[in-house]
Amino acid sequence: MRAETLKGHLDFLLLAILADEPAHGYRVIEELKRRSAGAFELPEGTVYPALHRLEESGLLASSWASETGRRRRVYRLTSRGRRALAGARSEWRGFAKAIEAVVA
Amino acid sequence: MSERYLGELKAELGAVGIRGSRRRRILAETADHLHESADPARFGAPKLIAARFADELATSGARRAAFSSFVVLAPAGVLYVVLFGLIRTWPDIASARFLPLAICVAFAMVLAPQVAFAAGLLAVARAWRLRPERASPAGEIIVLRRRSAVALGSGAAAFGAIAVYASEYSASLPGWWQDMAYGSAGTAFVALGGAGVALARTARLQPQTAGRGGGLFDDLEPVLDVIPLRLRGHPWLLCLLVAGAAAAAALLAGGPGEGPRNAAFEFVTVCAGFFALGGFLGLKD
After folding, report:
1. Residues of A with Cβ-Cβ distance to B201 under 8 angstroms
2. What does the domain layout of chain B look like in residue ranges?
3. Which residues of B touch A43 (CB under 8 A)?
4. Which chain B residues contact residue A45 at CB under 8 A?
5. Between B29, B35, B49, which is nearest A46 by CB?
6. Quick check: B57 and A49 CB within 8 A?
């Protein structure tokens, strides 16, 4: 899938991945690839600006954690982020259902 | 390999205005990522990553700065109106300690709040329109920052003017009003200064996305939709409409004695303000 197509949905996908448990950037990207079975291809580094921006918007929070002797920035969903995710999920399901009804 | 990549990324981040703790954090996260993947090519070119950071953080930062400027300016505006309303009898202009300064201050007291109000509203209108966007064109962000800066600067000028006015007419104004004017000016300077520092921080970022983006009529679309006139593409017509509305308000407020003079003054100053600041604030697009 082209990166441009994915770009409009990236925030939603990142929030969905972090809803399960806090994770560092590399783990988020790996999870994105795993869940999409490799369909979402984009330069891995472009996920980090989105994580920073979502944190500035108050949807994510982050802190340094020490893991195997390395400092890693771990991101987690805030309560505002959970509400935003719930809204985005509901909107997406309605949209997908409507598209499916038309093209099926 | 990773060291070289990190060096290039550091330079590119600096080139787009990302320095200090933000850059250290990005480099630490990148180093951690490359330790796992060991493939800088998959991470993306340093120039692309730096540009993406600048675009996304500049867009959200400028938007946030516009909203927080307005949050500071709105109560400051109410305080300013209250201060004006508390003066029952205005001192004779000639009784100032230094008349030329008093005349300049009197003009600033009338003009600066209006500029702050207009620029602040325009900043919020654009910030609201850019709400769903992750990365806006650089031109749009620069105009948004200018509107916020002009709003904050004019707000500070208005309170500075009222403090100087209190000092110039200290013999004619009640002591409690002077104390209130100095106290309000001090409080406003602190609040507006805080918003100004936040704006200056985000203004260091240099967004890289090219493109025209939207203009004044896109910012004002929700308002323009209810006006039964074809204003889109005619900024001077919009200016005349606003100037006419301001003049009508001044005419009604001033009554038969001062109304016509105040209305003419309002009309001319709105048009002059549009002419002088229109390009800078993106009003002529």
Report:
1. none
2. 2-44, 58-214
3. 42-45, 48-49
4. 30, 33, 43-44, 48-49, 52
5. B49
6. yes
Q: Does A88 touch chain B (CB under 8 A)?
A: no
Q: B49 and A71: CB-CB below 8 Å?
A: no
Question: Is residue B103 over pLDDT 80?
Answer: yes
Query: Model confidence at A42, in pLDDT bands (50, 70, 90)?
Result: confident
Residue A65 pairs with which residues in a beta bridge?
A: A72
Residue among B35, B44, B56 whose CB faces A45 most closely: B44
Question: pLDDT, tens digit, for every residue of B11-65?
Answer: 999 999 999 999 999 999 999 999 988 788 889 999 999 999 999 999 999 999 9
| Complex prediction ipTM | 0.90
Give every strand in the sheet of A23-24, ordered side by side: A23-24, A70-77, A60-67
Spatial distance between the Cα atoms of B216 and B242, rounded to a whole number of angstroms = 14
- Tell if the CB–CB gap between B134 and A11 is shorter than 8 Å: yes
Mind spelling out the 3-state secondary structure of B182-233?
Answer: HHHHHHHHHHHHHHHHHHHHHHCCCCCCCCCCCCHHHHCHHHHCCCCCCCCC
Is the Cβ–Cβ distance between B155 and B193 less than 8 Å?
A: no
The answer to whether residue A53 neighbours chain B at the CB level (below 8 Å) is: yes
Spatial separation of the C-alpha atoms in residues B221 and B249, rounded to whole Å: 24
Residues for chain B: how many in total?
A: 285
Please check whether residue B77 is in contact with residue B116, taking contact to mean a CB–CB distance below 8 angstroms. Answer: yes
Residue position matching structure tokens 């697009």? B285
Q: What is the DSSP letter of A103?
A: H
Beta bridge partners of A62: A75
Across chain B, mean pLDDT equals 92
Q: What is the pLDDT of residue B1?
A: 63
Q: Which amino acid is at B165?
A: Y
